[in-house]
Amino acid sequence: MRTERILEEIVVPAYEGRSALVRKGQVLYIVDMEGKQVGDFVCFNAADPQEHVSPVHMRASLSSIRLKVGDGLYSNRRQPLMQLVADTVGKHDFFFPACDYYRYKVDFGLEEHPNCHDNLRKALRSYGLGERGLPDPINWFMNNALDENLDYVIEEPLSRPGDYVALLALTDVVVALSACSQDLAPVNGYKVTPLMMQITTGSSGS
Ligand SMILES: [Zn+2]
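YS: structure for the whole thing
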């Protein structure tokens, strides 16, 4: 039973991105509304956006390539900006880049395909962060398995409708989420669907 109060609800339409400010102590829920949908996610320290969540630093600080409830989302300054506090799926990626213009041009010969890189930059414009380099993302619900040779096999997400992760803000953060635009590979089950961000008071909220 979730007891906290919802402060803001933001639907991230298929093939688009959205951003939000999450205050220290608030909890951000990222909900897979229809299932099998990856969400590419970046997170900045609102007080100093030079600091951002950094997957390469996360892997070092966590000494792991697996994300677990309780783990911090570590920054390029080796501080956790958020903490994973609930997860109904348990399978995510923090290795792969966001899909971008070149992914569709080089691998599929498409010039005009929507992509997470552009979705995230566009979404971040409202916080003045759209023109800087984009950090590597965490790809919530992305299900890339390793085979016996330690080569990647991209499989459909395990998430079902309503599955979510919950992230506690440890400081004020600006986040952006893209409903991954990849419809030419199994990553989203060949169908792009919306996600939702819910910002709540957190369990201690009143
Ligand atoms: Zn994508």
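YS: worth flagging: Residues 40, 98-99, 116, 180-182 surround zinc ion (CB under 6 Å).
IM: good catch. Also Residues 6-200 form one domain.
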